[in-house]
């Protein structure tokens, strides 16, 4: 256990440094974005027919909670706020705390990502085993090439294709947001059904995009394990097929769990495309909106949250690994 | 705020009941955490539904001072625009049952001062600002104008303001607010300090969250989810008997595509204007009950020049371009359903143009697509054509670099089309986009672009129309009724046009000063000025007017009827106003 | 002397052998040939494609956003231009930027990885910490945020930024390879023989990693294509009149390709191009390993 | 030509801040190999043979003690300055597969060090080619057929010869052969051993032989010295024949006893010493390092560490409190 | 156990090549037979084919492996084959270091083994295993609780032997049981092999490239070269007076602890690989000092000569002369 504790401590220390660095980067990037939101808003109000003077005043009031003080002072404030999970207030969300806005959006990202990843993980692993067993045959080739292709193709291509096919050409599935607007939110069949129906395409996209990677990873992992002597040894000892299969599966999947945790983290960042295509109001969409609306605080917050997710995923992956792999547990270095 | 328990199409009281679904086109992304506060830009106060103004601006083609009644049942405007007396609806009540009083109006005006408003400005010398607010009796308020820099739009500035209940909002303003306001009108340090304090109050106002929505409108806010805002009928509304829907749902959306889908599925009873490509438009039209109403939208878009840059300083180059660009084609490609090609450049949207300048309109040069004329103009400007390409007089290459903000897809599409048209005719061109509209505005004002698109003809007030061409952006500033001119490149003057133009048949005019005169002029006084300005704009071409926007509204007649007709002035007001006026009826 | 003659003639023979081996490898699976042909097609398209079309592309204002037809195989865009023509002429920007991305990614990644793995010690620690950090920061969100600061005004600049953001993975992998090769006897022997570092790195390490680097280069190319097309698709980059990503953006957000089928051709054009490019690279990478391995090449 | 005194090497487990366990690979080793002389190191796996060999070849640093080449102390020199000295000592790796670069032909492999040498001494290009052919002939390979080949086209024995040839390109004064034949087929092994012996005799290069196969140590010549190493310490040292015939340290004796007897050709030694199991987990560094496994241990062994010295009237140095000759090795039947 | 005419081929780009060709060998009950051969001579392939476990692309193309009470293993399929493995034939793996699942404790793997073979009394199995381990000088309880990485090489090898024996297999095949172990551990393992063999009355086959190992433990010795058995007979006799030129050369190539080192000589040439093994004729002829014309075309038959079998034209000729 002490080994795990030690690893955890190391990871946490590194994670904190990482977060500080990312926070600093995002702070400075965000501050160097051109475009003065105040001046722009004045123009906008004037275009809407407000007298220039009034527009000026209205804008000043609106942006009253704009950053004050020198850049350094702002930086210190920002970092101080970070300690209390205070990421500032979102301009576009009427001064709501960024953390609240993010929390609201996060659920639309986390659930589909989770569902898609797990789905693809399960299917990919089964197919990966198959591809490994049939690796010298035609089927194995097809599985491997299609896996590479799916792995290679960017998410948005898959998303757009799925949407074009199943929502436009043969409109059998919705692609216009997270839920049908006419259903009363709450725990009722219609609403839940609609939620599920709307989740099909985004989840399928997440799944399809990740599936290729899983099949490839699982295939190579299984091939490696199949080549390991202990599998042949088990066979020669007359072990049951089912037991041998379990041996293969467990040893082959182990390294994949690490990737699983990491990919969950990464997908949060990659959700941008899928959310844009399927109009899912999650973190990715929030990030794009905050960028187009010049919402400094929100942009920095979303970016930081996504990075944080990855850092946490890293830590979880590693800890998970240490828990299930006895070699790591006892402090041996394993090159994974 | 989750248990509504109401189901679709449940019956309601009043004019037939039912659920009315709509979206707020100005606001993608509903915010569940935002307060029911009309001043808050994300606030859940929906114009015309649970957000009430004193009156609803008609946006009449020429008269800025026409309104539909709101909280104010009627009003008297002094002949010289020096004051307005407002009479509150006699049986108006807040949704909590308390009557709407003059005191509510006065408090709301106070709040408007803190957040900035055309009539209730604390900036010294602002045009059309109020001087005094007087509670005459329980239901009457009189507001007088500061006549040092009067504006014909004074009444509009006053009536176009929110009204909120004093018994909910009263605590937001300090007791000494009105004294402070008085101080702020003066000069010197005390006044500056008072203004600062009032501004600071503004932030408080913006952030204020009433514990419960108390509305004088036809609806009150029940709850907001991330997906929708639900409003229910306010039985205390003075015209409640004629309000048809029992509930209103504002749906959340994050992209236009979503609205297209809603509309083609017939899910929305109403949606304001959103751009849609023709095929999508057709699809929407095919939805059962789908109906499209079009009307005048007081905006046009033009291609504007920075005249401090060569060769755009030469009026012949601008005219040449005007002849060269086929506006019909541009409009067809860029905004087929949302705009009509501008007949000519007058600086005025073509609908009200007839009203303002009448027969003069036909005498303006239409700049019909004519390559020969364009080449003649270019030649006159001294440009040279070499190997089929136009170059500057000194032989250096000429490239028309047009700028547009990213995301303005109709502008970009138009520029792309113009680019192709220009290149076809030997004028090199390119399209450059800028990250977003704020940056665009900032950079265009800083004179960084040669050519850009510019919203113009912002009606209906004549001053507003021409200040887009002959206002700050072209060098003229109007402070406290005094007009001054900045040199090109200074004080936001990026158009850099001449201060005086010799207009054919009129003589030398200073268009900026003429424009400023419109501020205080009555409609009749304005007409000849407008004619002069139209001529000036047509001849001098600071911008080439490309298309006039069309106000396109989407409605669905499956559940509700009584929608406004095409070209109705109501189209420029939110559907909530149509409902509170009692027009919308549930389908039997 | 005879040895001398033989060795110079052997190098020519070796070169011949190499290409014969490559041909053997390609022939072993026909799919690899398909990949190579596709790849050549894309290179040709990027280099010469635009020469086949007039500038500006012809447009037909009566044929705005039309579905595929005989005349226009993939339909027309919102300006009435042929989508196939757009895909072909638009490839130059996309591929050029991707190439720049790949070159920078690989050069930086290999350089840093080699240096780090070869020097070890403090430099290694510092460089790898930086690399880890880089790898932890999610690329796409960072790009999105950066796109607000940076002006991506040309394909080369685009590639530059993408390249600067994507060397991390290569660096780490190359370092791992370097470390493991370092442990191999031949590197140690070279050091024992007093051979210069430049020889060891240039002649011993790099050639051993060549297939790996080449593979990374190809993958970096796809990475470059994906990110820039993606950014254009999201609409966070300045407008380009002719670019696959811009096409996607216009098709979806302006022409309603995901709402009505008429703009599907417009959408499919760039999607197909990306799919084919991915396929080409997947197939070529599949062959790469065998091409660079003298043993597999000969079998 | 090379001497070492009190060489200590400790491997620090890098990357682990807490709970790092240092490995004491060498605990003060003295050695001296004269010009043209020979030595071999034998010992169990992990006793530090390779480490010591690498230190001698200049491929590894040491923590304490001193190594001197031709009287020049190495620790005072900068790495750059050390190099020319260490170039005189060339290592022959155990694994001929990895010792040759698979992407380079034999010609290229030999060319690099030769051209460096040609540059230093101002010789012509043709010299390089001649010399390449010469060194190959020296190791018994036909240059014509070998030069253009890749390593994978050669057999293990040929590869090992190429490795030796490569070492010869720099005219070394000493070869360090680390288990140079353990991966080579039995029938070819002797050829390599004979080659090393031959090179020593003909070219006068010293040979350091590292092996766990005691019999091969005899191939360095009867004037060679045998170092028996146990846990980083030399426990017995003397001429090859003396130590094999009359070992006095119990560890040496158990090593020699463990050599299988070729029944039919040999008969077992009379006093074989079978050591206790290597219960190495509880590595105690108190007293004699071998005490825990030693069948002859006394109380003194537990508390005091014997030093390498000549006592007890035996000719070889040993580190044992109870040196006693035992006849442990098998004798040929013919001798009996 | 009788191996008769066993041929195993591997499918390569150059077609199917035999790695083991026409091997006949009888293992007497209760004896230890050793097979020596250099790398690539087909030892492991032979060992695997005894369990009908040659891995693709290899396959047994001819011959039979008869085991008392089991029949021809080559003909066994599926469940039958599986049940035979472990229960009838124990196999100790080459590089037994890696023959354990790294994620499971030895004890769990033992239980898996028991379940696979339908052992009812799992407790008894564990007891048996603990005893066996104790017998080999290990702390049984601790070892059963350990993961592979917690055991040293010698311990893992012993666990391998335990797993091969725990189901009371009476035929045991040990493929390179001591490679990669150091000398002292090797000596210990060999001692254990001998003792357990005697105690349980096993039929044991030890496969190795190290003649010393065979000499130490085996009663009978078989020499493999290029997939062929070139000589077999009682260990002492074969070592004392080898007949086949390869055996002779091999024994002469062993460096010895005493005596004149110059007597030891390497064999000329190099061992064949699968691709370079001659298709016909004697596999050894390229390196043979006694090569005759007939060797080029005719594969020498294994001829029984007293207690020994030798496959060499020269020897046969001499014998008949
Ligand atoms: N680079 C290293 N880092 C950490 N420990 C090391 C390193 N190299 C060697 N050791 C340790 O030092 C000790 C001596 O190792 P060395 O390789 O010298 O043994 P050896 O006698 O050559 O063994 P073998 O016969 O197995 O080759 C061992 O315990 C080994 O684990
Ligand atoms: N899967 C395979 N495919 C092709 N050839 C193979 C395969 N496995 C083994 N061989 C070949 O079969 C021959 C015999 O191999 P085998 O493993 O039985 O040799 P061995 O005597 O056990 O050698 P070692 O001592 O190296 O273990 C070798 O030439 C080898 O190259
Ligand atoms: Mg070693
Ligand atoms: Mg083997």
TrEMBL record, chain A:
<comment type="similarity">
    <text>Belongs to the binding-protein-dependent transport system permease family.</text>
</comment>
<dbReference type="GO" id="GO:0055085">
    <property type="term" value="P:transmembrane transport"/>
</dbReference>
<keyword id="KW-1133">Transmembrane helix</keyword>
<keyword id="KW-0813">Transport</keyword>
<dbReference type="InterPro" id="IPR000515">
    <property type="entry name" value="MetI-like"/>
</dbReference>
<feature type="transmembrane region" description="Helical">
    <location>
        <begin position="12"/>
        <end position="30"/>
    </location>
</feature>
<feature type="transmembrane region" description="Helical">
    <location>
        <begin position="298"/>
        <end position="321"/>
    </location>
</feature>
<keyword id="KW-0812">Transmembrane</keyword>
<feature type="domain" description="ABC transmembrane type-1">
    <location>
        <begin position="106"/>
        <end position="317"/>
    </location>
</feature>
<dbReference type="InterPro" id="IPR035906">
    <property type="entry name" value="MetI-like_sf"/>
</dbReference>
<feature type="transmembrane region" description="Helical">
    <location>
        <begin position="153"/>
        <end position="173"/>
    </location>
</feature>
<dbReference type="GO" id="GO:0005886">
    <property type="term" value="C:plasma membrane"/>
</dbReference>
UniProtKB/TrEMBL annotation, chain C:
<feature type="transmembrane region" description="Helical">
    <location>
        <begin position="135"/>
        <end position="152"/>
    </location>
</feature>
<feature type="transmembrane region" description="Helical">
    <location>
        <begin position="257"/>
        <end position="285"/>
    </location>
</feature>
<dbReference type="Pfam" id="PF00528">
    <property type="entry name" value="BPD_transp_1"/>
</dbReference>
<feature type="transmembrane region" description="Helical">
    <location>
        <begin position="213"/>
        <end position="237"/>
    </location>
</feature>
<keyword id="KW-1133">Transmembrane helix</keyword>
<dbReference type="InterPro" id="IPR035906">
    <property type="entry name" value="MetI-like_sf"/>
</dbReference>
<comment type="similarity">
    <text>Belongs to the binding-protein-dependent transport system permease family.</text>
</comment>
<keyword id="KW-0813">Transport</keyword>
<dbReference type="GO" id="GO:0005886">
    <property type="term" value="C:plasma membrane"/>
</dbReference>
<dbReference type="InterPro" id="IPR050366">
    <property type="entry name" value="BP-dependent_transpt_permease"/>
</dbReference>
<keyword id="KW-0472">Membrane</keyword>
<feature type="transmembrane region" description="Helical">
    <location>
        <begin position="33"/>
        <end position="53"/>
    </location>
</feature>
TrEMBL record, chain D:
<dbReference type="Pfam" id="PF00005">
    <property type="entry name" value="ABC_tran"/>
</dbReference>
<dbReference type="InterPro" id="IPR003593">
    <property type="entry name" value="AAA+_ATPase"/>
</dbReference>
<dbReference type="GO" id="GO:0005524">
    <property type="term" value="F:ATP binding"/>
</dbReference>
<feature type="domain" description="ABC transporter">
    <location>
        <begin position="2"/>
        <end position="256"/>
    </location>
</feature>
<dbReference type="InterPro" id="IPR013563">
    <property type="entry name" value="Oligopep_ABC_C"/>
</dbReference>
<dbReference type="Pfam" id="PF08352">
    <property type="entry name" value="oligo_HPY"/>
</dbReference>
<keyword id="KW-0547">Nucleotide-binding</keyword>
<dbReference type="GO" id="GO:0015833">
    <property type="term" value="P:peptide transport"/>
</dbReference>
<keyword id="KW-0813">Transport</keyword>
<dbReference type="GO" id="GO:0016887">
    <property type="term" value="F:ATP hydrolysis activity"/>
</dbReference>
<dbReference type="InterPro" id="IPR003439">
    <property type="entry name" value="ABC_transporter-like_ATP-bd"/>
</dbReference>
<keyword id="KW-0067">ATP-binding</keyword>
Automatic annotation (TrEMBL), chain E:
<dbReference type="InterPro" id="IPR050388">
    <property type="entry name" value="ABC_Ni/Peptide_Import"/>
</dbReference>
<comment type="similarity">
    <text>Belongs to the ABC transporter superfamily.</text>
</comment>
<dbReference type="InterPro" id="IPR003439">
    <property type="entry name" value="ABC_transporter-like_ATP-bd"/>
</dbReference>
<keyword id="KW-1003">Cell membrane</keyword>
<protein>
    <submittedName>
        <fullName>ABC transporter ATP-binding protein</fullName>
    </submittedName>
</protein>
<dbReference type="InterPro" id="IPR013563">
    <property type="entry name" value="Oligopep_ABC_C"/>
</dbReference>
<keyword id="KW-0547">Nucleotide-binding</keyword>
<dbReference type="GO" id="GO:0005886">
    <property type="term" value="C:plasma membrane"/>
</dbReference>
<dbReference type="GO" id="GO:0016887">
    <property type="term" value="F:ATP hydrolysis activity"/>
</dbReference>
<keyword id="KW-0472">Membrane</keyword>
<keyword id="KW-0813">Transport</keyword>
<feature type="domain" description="ABC transporter">
    <location>
        <begin position="1"/>
        <end position="251"/>
    </location>
</feature>
């Amino acid at each position: 256990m002490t080994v795990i504790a030690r690893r955890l401590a190391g990871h946490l220390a590194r994670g904190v440094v990482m977060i500080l660095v990312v926070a600093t980067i995002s702070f400075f990037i965000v501050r160097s974005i051109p475009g003065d939101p105040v001046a722009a808003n004045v123009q906008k109000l004037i275009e809407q027919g407000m007298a220039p003077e009034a527009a000026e005043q209205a804008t000043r009031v609106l942006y009253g909670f704009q950053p004050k003080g020198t850049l350094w002072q702002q930086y210190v404030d920002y970092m101080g706020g970070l300690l209390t999970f205070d990421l500032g207030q979102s301009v576009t969300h009427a001064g709501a705390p960024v953390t609240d806005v993010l929390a609201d959006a996060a659920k639309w990202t986390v659930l589909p990502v989770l569902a898609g990843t797990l789905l693809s993980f399960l299917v990919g692993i089964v197919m990966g085993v198959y591809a490994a067993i049939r690796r010298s045959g035609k089927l194995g080739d097809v599985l491997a090439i299609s896996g590479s292709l799916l792995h290679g193709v960017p998410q948005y291509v898959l998303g757009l294709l799925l949407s074009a096919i199943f929502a436009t050409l043969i409109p059998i599935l919705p692609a216009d947001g997270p839920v049908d607007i006419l259903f009363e939110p709450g725990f009722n069949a219609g609403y839940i059904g609609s939620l599920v129906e709307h989740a099909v395409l985004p989840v399928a996209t997440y799944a399809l995009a990740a599936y290729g990677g899983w099949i490839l990873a699982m295939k190579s992992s299984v091939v490696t394990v199949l080549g390991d002597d202990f599998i042949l040894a088990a066979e020669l000892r007359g072990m049951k097929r089912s037991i041998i299969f379990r041996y293969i599966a467990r040893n082959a999947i182990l390294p994949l769990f690490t990737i699983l945790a990491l990919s969950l983290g990464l997908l949060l960042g990659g959700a941008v495309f899928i959310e844009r295509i399927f109009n899912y109001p999650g973190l990715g969409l929030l990030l794009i909106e905050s960028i187009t609306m010049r919402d400094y605080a929100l942009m920095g917050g979303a970016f930081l949250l996504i990075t944080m997710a990855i850092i946490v995923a890293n830590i979880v992956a590693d800890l998970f690994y240490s828990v299930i792999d006895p070699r790591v547990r006892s402090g041996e270095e394993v090159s994974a | 705020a989750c248990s509504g328990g109401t189901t679709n199409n449940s019956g309601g009281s009043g004019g037939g009941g039912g659920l009315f679904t709509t979206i707020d086109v100005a606001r993608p992304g509903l915010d569940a955490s935002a307060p029911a506060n009309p001043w808050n830009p994300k606030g859940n106060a929906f114009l015309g539904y649970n957000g009430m103004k004193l009156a609803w601006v008609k946006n009449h083609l020429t008269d800025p001072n026409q309104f539909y009644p709101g909280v104010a049942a009627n009003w008297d405007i002094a002949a010289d625009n020096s004051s307005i007396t407002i009479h509150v609806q006699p049986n108006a009540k807040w949704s909590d049952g308390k009557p709407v009083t003059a005191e509510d109006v006065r408090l709301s005006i106070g709040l408007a001062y803190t957040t900035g408003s055309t009539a209730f400005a604390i900036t010294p010398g602002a045009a059309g600002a109020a001087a005094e607010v007087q509670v005459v009796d329980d239901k009457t308020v009189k507001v007088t104008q500061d006549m040092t820099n009067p504006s014909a739009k004074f009444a509009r500035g006053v009536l176009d303001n929110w009204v909120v209940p004093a018994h909910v909002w009263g605590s937001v303003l300090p007791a000494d607010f009105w004294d402070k306001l008085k101080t702020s009108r003066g000069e010197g340090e005390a006044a500056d300090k008072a203004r600062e304090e009032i501004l600071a109050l503004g932030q408080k106002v913006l952030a204020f969250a009433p514990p419960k929505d108390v509305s004088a409108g036809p609806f009150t806010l029940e709850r907001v989810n991330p997906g929708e805002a639900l409003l229910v009928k306010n039985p205390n509304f003075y015209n409640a008997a004629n309000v048809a829907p029992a509930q209103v749902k504002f749906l959340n959306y994050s992209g236009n595509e979503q609205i297209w889908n809603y509309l083609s599925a017939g899910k929305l009873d109403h949606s304001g204007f959103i751009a849609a490509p023709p095929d999508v438009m057709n699809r929407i039209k095919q939805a059962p009950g789908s109906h499209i109403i079009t009307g005048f939208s007081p905006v046009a878009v033009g291609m504007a020049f920075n005249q401090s840059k060569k060769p755009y300083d030469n009026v012949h180059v601008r005219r040449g371009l005007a002849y060269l660009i086929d506006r019909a084609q541009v409009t067809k490609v860029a905004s087929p359903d949302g705009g009509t090609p501008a007949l000519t450049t007058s600086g005025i949207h073509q609908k009200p143009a007839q009203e303002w300048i009448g027969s003069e309109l036909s005498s303006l040069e239409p700049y019909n697509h004519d390559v020969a004329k364009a080449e003649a103009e270019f030649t006159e400007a001294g440009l040279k054509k070499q190997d089929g390409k136009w170059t500057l007089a000194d032989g250096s290459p000429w490239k028309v670099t047009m700028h547009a903000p990213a995301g303005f897809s109709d502008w970009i599409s138009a520029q792309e089309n113009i680019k192709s048209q220009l290149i076809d005719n030997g004028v090199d061109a390119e399209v450059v986009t800028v990250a977003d509209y704020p940056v665009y505005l900032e950079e265009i004002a800083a004179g960084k672009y040669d050519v850009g698109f510019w919203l113009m003809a912002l009606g209906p007030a004549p001053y507003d129309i021409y200040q887009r061409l002959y206002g700050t952006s072209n060098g003229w500033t109007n402070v406290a009724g005094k007009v001054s001119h900045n040199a090109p490149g200074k004080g936001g003057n990026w158009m850099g046009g001449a201060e005086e133009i010799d207009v054919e048949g009129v003589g030398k005019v200073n268009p900026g000063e003429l424009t400023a005169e419109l501020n205080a002029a009555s409609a009749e006084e304005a007409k000849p000025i407008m004619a002069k300005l139209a001529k000036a704009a047509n001849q001098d071409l600071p911008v080439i007017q490309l298309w006039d926007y069309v106000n396109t509204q989407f409605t669905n007649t499956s559940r509700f009827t009584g929608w406004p007709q095409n070209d109705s002035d109501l189209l420029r007001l939110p559907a909530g106003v149509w409902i509170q006026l009692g027009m919308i009826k549930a389908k039997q | 002397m005879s040895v001398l003659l033989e060795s110079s003639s052997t190098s020519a023979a070796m070169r011949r052998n190499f290409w014969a081996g490559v041909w053997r490898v390609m022939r072993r699976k026909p799919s690899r040939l398909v990949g190579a042909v596709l790849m050549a097609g894309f290179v040709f398209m990027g280099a010469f494609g635009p020469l086949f079309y007039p500038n500006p592309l012809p447009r037909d204002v009566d044929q705005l956003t039309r579905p595929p037809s005989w005349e226009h195989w993939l339909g027309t865009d919102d300006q009435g231009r042929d989508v196939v023509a757009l895909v072909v002429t638009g490839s130059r920007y996309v591929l050029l930027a991707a190439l720049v991305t790949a070159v920078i990614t690989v050069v930086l990644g290999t350089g840093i990885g080699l240096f780090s793995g070869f020097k070890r010690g403090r430099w290694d620690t510092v460089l790898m910490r930086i690399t880890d950090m880089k790898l932890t920061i999610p690329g796409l969100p960072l790009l999105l945020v950066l796109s607000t600061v940076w002006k991506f005004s040309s394909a080369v600049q685009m590639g530059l930024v993408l390249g600067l953001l994507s060397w991390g993975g290569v660096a780490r992998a190359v370092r791992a390879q370097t470390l493991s090769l370092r442990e191999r006897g031949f590197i140690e022997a070279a050091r024992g023989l007093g051979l210069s570092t430049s020889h060891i790195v240039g002649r011993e390490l790099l050639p051993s990693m060549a297939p790996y680097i080449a593979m990374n280069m190809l993958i970096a190319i796809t990475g470059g294509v994906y990110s820039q097309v993606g950014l254009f698709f999201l609409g966070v980059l300045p407008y380009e009149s002719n670019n696959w990503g811009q096409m996607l953006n216009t098709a979806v957000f302006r022409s309603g390709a995901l709402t009505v089928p008429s703009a599907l051709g417009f959408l499919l054009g760039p999607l197909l191009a990306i799919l084919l490019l991915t396929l080409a690279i997947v197939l070529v990478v599949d062959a790469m390993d065998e091409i660079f391995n003298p043993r597999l090449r000969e079998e | 030509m090379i001497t070492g005194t009190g060489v200590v090497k400790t491997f620090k487990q890098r990357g682990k801040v807490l709970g790092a366990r240092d490995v004491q690979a060498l605990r003060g080793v003295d050695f001296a190999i004269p010009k043209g002389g020979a030595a071999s190191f034998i010992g169990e796996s992990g006793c530090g043979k390779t480490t010591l060999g690498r230190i001698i070849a200049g491929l590894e640093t040491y923590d304490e003690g001193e190594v001197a080449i031709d009287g020049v102390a190495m620790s005072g020199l900068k790495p750059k300055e050390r190099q020319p000295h260490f170039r005189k000592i060339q290592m022959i790796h155990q694994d001929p597969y990895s010792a040759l670069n698979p992407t380079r032909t034999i010609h290229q492999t030999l060319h690099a060090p030769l051209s460096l040498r040609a540059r230093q001494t101002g010789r012509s290009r043709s010299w390089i080619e001649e010399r390449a052919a010469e060194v190959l002939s020296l190791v018994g390979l036909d240059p014509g057929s070998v030069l253009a080949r890749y390593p994978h086209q050669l057999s293990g024995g040929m590869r090992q010869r190429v490795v030796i040839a490569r070492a010869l390109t720099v005219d070394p004064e000493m070869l360090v052969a680390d288990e140079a034949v353990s991966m080579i087929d039995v029938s070819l092994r002797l050829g390599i051993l004979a080659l090393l012996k031959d090179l020593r005799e003909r070219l006068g290069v010293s040979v350091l032989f590292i092996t766990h196969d005691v019999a091969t140590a005899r191939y360095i010549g009867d004037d060679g010295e045998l170092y028996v190493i146990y846990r980083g310490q030399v426990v017995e040292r003397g001429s090859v024949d003396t130590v094999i015939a009359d070992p006095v340290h119990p560890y040496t004796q158990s090593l020699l006893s463990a050599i299988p007897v070729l029944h039919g050709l040999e008969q077992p030694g009379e006093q074989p010493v079978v050591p206790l199991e290597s219960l190495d987990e509880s590595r105690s560094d108190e007293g004699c390092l071998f005490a825990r496994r030693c069948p002859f241990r006394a109380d003194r062994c537990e508390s005091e560490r014997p030093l390498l010295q000549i006592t007890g009237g035996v000719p070889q140095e040993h580190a044992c409190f109870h040196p006693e000759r035992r006849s442990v090795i098998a004798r040929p039947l013919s001798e009996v | 156990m009788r191996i008769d005419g066993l041929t195993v081929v591997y499918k390569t780009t150059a077609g199917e090549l035999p790695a083991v060709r026409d091997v006949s060998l009888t293992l007497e009950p209760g004896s230890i037979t050793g097979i020596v051969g250099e790398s690539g001579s087909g030892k492991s392939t032979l060992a695997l084919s005894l369990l009908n476990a040659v891995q693709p692309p290899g396959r047994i193309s001819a011959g039979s492996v008869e085991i008392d009470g089991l029949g021809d293993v080559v003909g066994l399929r599926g469940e039958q084959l599986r049940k035979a493995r472990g229960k009838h034939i124990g196999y100790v793996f080459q590089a037994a270091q890696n023959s354990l699942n790294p994620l499971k404790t030895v004890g769990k793997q033992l239980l898996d083994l028991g379940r696979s073979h339908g052992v009812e009394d799992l407790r008894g199995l564990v007891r048996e295993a603990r005893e066996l381990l104790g017998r080999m000088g290990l702390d049984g309880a601790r070892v059963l609780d350990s993961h592979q990485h917690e055991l040293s090489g010698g311990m893992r090898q012993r666990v391998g032997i335990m797993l091969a024996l725990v189901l009371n297999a009476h035929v045991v095949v040990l493929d390179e049981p001591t490679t990669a172990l150091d000398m002292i551990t090797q000596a210990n393992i060999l001692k254990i092999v001998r003792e357990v063999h005697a105690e349980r009355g096993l039929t044991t086959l030890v496969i190795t490239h190290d003649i010393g190992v065979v000499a130490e433990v085996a009663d009978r010795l078989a020499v493999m070269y290029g997939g062929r058995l070139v000589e077999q007979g009682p260990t002492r006799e074969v070592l004392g007076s080898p007949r086949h030129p390869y055996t002779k050369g091999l024994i002469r190539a062993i460096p010895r602890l005493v005596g004149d080192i110059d007597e030891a000589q390497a064999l000329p040439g190099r061992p064949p690989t699968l691709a370079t093994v001659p298709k016909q004729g004697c596999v050894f002829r390229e390196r043979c000092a006694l090569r005759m014309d007939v060797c080029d075309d005719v594969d020498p038959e294994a001829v029984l000569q007293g207690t020994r079998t030798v496959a060499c034209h020269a020897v046969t000729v001499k014998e008949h002369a």
